[in-house]
Amino acid sequence: MTPSDSASGSSSDSAAASPLAGRRLTARITGEVQAVGFRYRTLQQANRLGLTGVVSNSSDGSVHVVAEGGPAEIAGLLQWLRSPAAPGTVTGVEESLSAATGEFPDFRTD
């Protein structure tokens, strides 16, 4: 495949099959986000968006999210995390973006 083949999208499943075609979001969510269904609802939202990754509680009371997928889907999850639709009371979302690694087969809670 030449670079021009890749740009034209001649292989419809190449973006989904290549982990590096996606983005990785690592986020720390603070506020009243534990014991309010936050992980479960984040799991549901990530599944709706077709993301892979993990959401877990941290000992400091925050929630940690690692999600991988397309840029639009990652942006959708970030928007949801900051919205009133997210359970509890979110006071902060610290985020970093990088290339996806493909390490997650699905989205799960820990």
* Structural class by SSE content: alpha+beta
Helix content: 25-40%
Q: What is the assembly state of the chains in this entry?
A: single chain
Query: What is the count of β-strands?
Result: 5
Cα distance spanning the termini: 39 Å
How big is the Rg? 15 Å
Reading side by side through the largest sheet, how are the strands ordered? 4-1-3-2-5
How many strands, what sense, and barrel or not for the largest sheet? 5 strands, mixed
3D structure, described in words:
With 110 residues, this protein is α+β, with helices and mostly antiparallel strands. Helix content is 30%, strand content 34%. It has a five-stranded mixed β-sheet. α3 packs antiparallel against α4.
Helix-strand blueprint:
Elements: H1 3-8, H2 14-17, E1 23-32, H3 38-49, E2 52-57, E3 63-69, H4 71-81, E4 89-99, E5 107-109
Parallel strand pairs: 2-5
Antiparallel strand pairs: 1-3, 1-4, 2-3
Helix pairs in contact: 3-4
Defining traits:
4 helices; 30% helix; 110 residues; disordered N terminus; globular; alpha+beta; 5 strands
